[in-house]
Amino acid sequence: MLADALGRPLRFIVTAGQVGDVTQSPALLEGQTGGAVLADKAYDSNVLRAIIAQIGAIAVIPSNRTPKVVFPHDAIVYKQRSRIEQCFNHLKHCRRFATRYERRTIHFIGFAFLAAAMDWLR
User: Fold this and answer.
1) Coiled-coil intervals in this record (predicted)?
2) Which candidate, 8, 34, 109, 110, has a CA 20 to 30 Å from the CA of 92?
3) Distances in Å between the alpha carbon of 59 and those of 7, 24, 30?
4) Which among 60, 7, 11 has a CA at the least distance from the CA of 38?
5) CA 59 to CA 35: how far, in whole Å?
6) Which domain holds residue 91?
7) Cα–Cα distance between 100 and 103 in angstroms, integer?
8) Digit-coded pLDDT (tens) for 39-63
9) Is the pLDDT of residue 121 over 70?
């Protein structure tokens, strides 16, 4: 999921359970603009950092525990990532979203858009 600076969801991509989220980052960031991209340690990859640099943004992503090259990040800006976590929390209040009752992906995505629209109204 891609969220804006206020923690409102912008884009969703549903993957299989065993697929890492970082693989979908280029598709989520396609066509986006902004000053910074905030993500957690799971998104620490050189490919993603290059994509973020191409869109003209700053990557605010902490390095993994054992990196060969440590990338510094702005800890004050990184604290704003809590808004993205709050977005997930708001969406998970919808039990149907949190437990994924739907068998078909298209139905789940439809409900995700509905829950996101309701979240935008708060």
Assistant:
1) none
2) 34
3) 17, 16, 15
4) 60
5) 9
6) 2-120
7) 8
8) 888 888 888 889 999 999 988 888 8
9) no
